[in-house]
Write a structure and sequence with these properties.
single chain
């Protein structure tokens, strides 16, 4: 289980980004402890599911054509 700060470090984002992702419902989490004061924790399964749902394939970029030179 990782807390928000640890997850942010693993993903290479700020803890505010992790909070925003959580608030948007894009990642599952568990609250450990008493009521709303408990700490937010992310399981390895939660993290794997989030990463899988946000994965996209990168294709080779199209070659950039050089502009033609005007004949002088």
């Amino acid at each position: 289980m990782l807390n928000e700060t640890e997850l942010a470090a693993r993903l290479g984002v700020s803890h505010r980004t992790v909070r925003r992702i959580r608030a948007q419902g894009r990642i599952s989490y568990s609250r450990v402890g008493a009521g709303t004061q408990g700490s937010v924790q992310f399981s390895e399964d939660d993290i794997a599911q989030y990463l899988a749902s946000n994965r996209f394939e990168v294709t080779s970029p199209k070659p950039v054509r050089k502009p033609r030179r005007k004949a002088s």
